[in-house]
Design a protein that fits this description.
63 residues, mainly alpha, 73% helix, binds zinc ion
């Protein structure tokens, strides 16, 4: 089954956000998994928001 372009685009943004967040948290001494620092928080929020959006979209495609 071909993925619609929208889903591919969303996936790309989700992966980029995940990469940015991971890169930050690995190099940041202040971030903790349950409490990101001020720099890490927006990265983490963007990542979780895109993850939710992607999974929601994926679910719609499969039903
Ligand atoms: Zn941090």
């Amino acid at each position: 089954m071909n993925r619609p372009a929208r889903l591919t685009d969303l996936y790309d943004r989700y992966m980029t956000a995940a990469k940015l967040h991971r890169a930050h948290s690995e190099s940041c001494d202040t971030c903790r998994p349950d409490a990101p620092c001020e720099t890490g928080r927006p990265l983490w929020e963007r990542f979780t928001r895109l993850q939710d959006a992607y999974l929601t979209e994926l679910c719609k495609q499969q039903h």
